[in-house]
Amino acid sequence: MKKMPDSALGNRLEKGAHRMAQVKIVTDSAQDFEPNLLEGLGITVVPLNVHFGDVSFKDGYELRGKEFYEKLESSAHIARTSQPSPWDFEQVFARLTEDGSAVVAITLSSALSGTYQSAVMAAQALPDRQITVIDSKSASGMYGMMAILAQEMSDQGKSLDEIVAAVNRMRENAVTVFCVDTLDYLARNGRIGKAAHFLGTLLNMKPVLSLDKDGYVTAIERVRGKEKERVIPRMVEIAKERLAGEDQVHLCISHANAPAEAALLKKQAKDMFTVTRLFEAEIGAIIGTHTGPGTLALLAIPSRCIQL
Fold first, then answer.
1. 11 lies in the same domain as 125
2. Segments in 174-277 forming alpha helices (H)
3. Which of helix, strand or coil describes residue 136?
4. In terms of pTM, does the model score above 0.90?
5. Does residue 35 register a pLDDT over 70?
6. DSSP-based three-state secondary structure for 297
7. What is the DSSP code string of 88-137?
8. Strands 131-135 and 175-179
9. The domain spanning residue 239 has which CATH number?
10. Same structural domain for residues 30 and 146?
11. DSSP state, 134?
């Protein structure tokens, strides 16, 4: 099922907003917006890979959504993921900069993947080109939002320095709050981070997690009860607390095959915040491999970080 962020993005797609820009935006597929949507906006997406045994799929292009979660739960093989190679990024960077354009690449947290390192190595292989690689220190729709907003700045003719500064402001002020149905996937794939002490203590509890300033998974608290209806109000409250008085936000609701719960989270978040922009994304194969089905995320960036 395809989801679009907000009506403005739909309008921009219809108007063909993918014109050549002086600053070109690159991201990777773990940001969880559909590649076709981002490419329509002018953003280049470099896919990560998900593996079931000896069979590999390009995230977002060859496997995503319900089909992925059915395979995740039914396959005899434990899903694995791998980052793009430096050569994958180098080909993209070379093509986008051959006309003299600059590139800003915004990647999945380096604490969760080697994708950032691959992009850095690719940029170093092209020393005569203007390429800035930014570790988003985030995951899923959070840095998908960053890429979209950066692209809109590029469409407005903003400079490389202005775009990089805005992305860095967004990164430093971003708030991620998410819950998972089980910690088994994070533990199995070694992404449990600073939430390991929650393992074995979740009887009739739902873990609420975050990403810290370095991009590692960290525990916030355990909410009594396994129903998401109990957890969702607390997720919104925690986001409000962490935003420390920032009422106007760019907001993304991400979910892993949990559309009804995502709709409830969206409603409660809209009641709590003044939402400048609202985005929605379905968590894809890369993040979903590590968090599992049922994951629900509230992702917020203070609106003051970027003026469009």
1. yes
2. 184-188, 228-243, 259-272
3. coil
4. no
5. yes
6. strand
7. HHHHHHHHHHTTS-EEEEEES-TTT-SHHHHHHHHHHT-TTS-EEEEE-S
8. unpaired
9. 3.30.1180.10
10. yes
11. E
